[in-house]
What we know:
Blueprint: H1 8-22, H2 28-39, E1 43-46, E2 51-61, E3 67-73, H3 78-85, H4 91-103, H5 107-110, H6 115-125
Antiparallel strand pairs: 1-2, 2-3
Amino acid sequence: MSDPKIAREVAEKEIESWCDQFECVLDDGIGERLTLAVMAGRLSLDVESEVFTLKLRKPLTLENGEILAELKIEGPTFRQQQAATKGTEEVNEISARMLSAVTGQPTGILDRLQMKDINTAVTLIGFFG
Length: 129
């Protein structure tokens, strides 16, 4: 990782406050992934709207010429969760459907993102229970 924009202690406190807000507990591996993203200045939370913003490692140029530089990730509804699991037990398929639902991005666009961004985004869904 390049020089952090945010100190580790500050990033860990930030994630701890998110866990308090969402009443969740993270295991060490997940907490470390999010800590590194916060330290790099790529991950933030709008506390009022409870929407995470994940800046992509590598912006994506869409077919219409627009640049996708970040994902907004909000909590899924029960209906979105049901739709994501309908007809499949395949974990990657469920994750792709759920991530599409909470970001508003089609799975075809998500398929083009780097795995590190996908892993961080999927991890964030856990904050919503």
